[in-house]
Design a protein that fits this description.
The chain is mostly helical and 82 residues long. The chain has a domain of 57 residues. Helix 1 packs across helix 2.
Length: 82
Amino acid sequence: MNFSLIPQLEIFVRERAASGDYNNASEVVREALRVFKCSEEMHVLKLKQLRAAIAEGESAIEQGDSHIFNSEQELDNFFAKL
């Protein structure tokens, strides 16, 4: 597989490889891709959790189990009691 990097990223990869932390540029790129993959997986998980929380909130509202806050102070007081 071949790919192109912008000059700044190419310099970064070369510097990281030269630092001794990695044996070569391929290792640097593989590590970057592992980190990116992990980040993407976390994003998907957080999105799933957010959607579940929204569904739970909508269900609570439909059942009349909700709070209406008329001011920021009321909201602050509510969270202070938790």
